[in-house]
Amino acid sequence: MVDVLVVGAGPAGSALAAACTDLGLSTTLVDRNPERPWRHTYGAWAHELPPLPHDAIAARATTVKAFALTEHRLDGEYVVLHNENLRRHLSRPDIETIAGRAADITPTTATINGRTITAGIVVDASGPPRGRYAEQTAVGVTLPADVLDKGEAVFMDWRQAGDPPTFCYALPLDDERVLVEETSLAHLPGLSFGLLRERLHRRLAVHGWPLDRPDHERVRFPLNPPRPRGPLVTFGARAALVHPATGYSVATALTLAPKVAHAIAETPTRVRDTIWSPKARMTHGLRRRGLSALLHLPSTRVPEFFELFFRLPAEKQRIYLTERENFTGTAAAMLALFRSAPPRLRSAIAFAATTR
C-alpha cells in the first residue's frame, strides 16, 4: 500500500506527485506512457506561477499586445514554459512510476496492468473528461523569431475575427522561433482544424509571413465540464481547473499542487475543499457566465466585447484572468465591462449571458 496514487503524468499529475513526495508521502505515478513528451505549448502570466528554476522558462515576453478594435498594451510579463526542464524539475527519484492504464479507479484503489494497487488516497489527474462541451481549438505553426519584435507576444488579435470568430495568438518559443496560432476561444462544438488552418494561412498571407510550414501544434480541449462530484479526488483538467473563458489551467495546477499535498498529508477530509474552496466555486460560476456570454454573443460583437475588456484597468483584467478565488474582484470586473458597453452591446451581452 502507498500513501498516494496519482493517475496521469502530465504537468498537473507530476506536480502533485512531486509535492506529495516532498512531504515524505510514498507516492506512485501511473500513466499509459509516462515518458511521452508534453507536446503542448504552455504559456502563463509570470505572476500566477509558483517559484520555478530559471531553466523551466523557455521564453519571456515583457511587451504583451492585444488587438480588438484598436491596439492595447497589456500589463505584466508573459512566459512560455520549457516542458522538458519543467518535467525534470517535477521529477523525484522516490516516485514510483508505472507505465500502464489505470482502470476501475476508486478513492483508494486502481487496477493497473491487471494488478490492484491500494493507496491512502487515489487522485485522478488523467486529463479532461470527454463529453459534449464547449471547446477551445487551435492550429499553430512555428516561424522565425524576427516576425515579432524581441520580447514581444500577441495575447489576442481579433482584427480578422471572421464568423465564427477566431483570433491570432503569437509568442516566442525561444531565441529562434515564434509560435503563431489561429485560435477559437470557445465554440460548441469546437471548430475543425481544417477551418483553423485556412484562417491561419490567410492571416500569415496578410502579414507576409512564411506559408510553407507544417502544423506545429493542434489543440482541442473542453472549457466547461462540470466540477466532478462523488468521492474520487481529481486534479488538473480532470478537476475542471481549466479557466472557462481562457482555457488556462497549468499555472493553477502548479500553484495548487503543494497546498493539495499538505491537505493529503495533514487533513485528508479537506482535500476537495482545498482544490475547490467556496470562493473558488463561486468565482468559477461567474467565469462560466462569462463563457456563456462568449458562446452566444453574435460573431460581429466579439471584437467589440474584447475592446471593452482590454480597456478595463489592468488590475481588473488581472483579477479576471488569473485570480480563481477572488469572487468580489471578478464580479467587479464583469460589472465594469457591462456598464461600459453601449446600449446595443449591453443588451447582447445580457441576452448571451443568460442563454443556456
From TrEMBL:
**Protein family per UniProt:** Belongs to the lycopene cyclase family.
Write down the superkingdom of origin: Bacteria
Could you tell me the keywords of this UniProt record?
A: Carotenoid biosynthesis, NAD
| Organism, as annotated | Kutzneria chonburiensis
Q: Which NCBIfam families match?
A: carotene-cycl
What Gene3D superfamilies does the record tag this protein with? Answer: FAD/NAD(P)-binding domain
Q: Protein name, please?
A: Lycopene cyclase family protein
Q: What is the lineage of its organism?
A: Bacteria, Bacillati, Actinomycetota, Actinomycetes, Pseudonocardiales
Note the InterPro entries from the entry.
Answer: FAD/NAD-bd_sf, Lycopene_cyclase_b/e
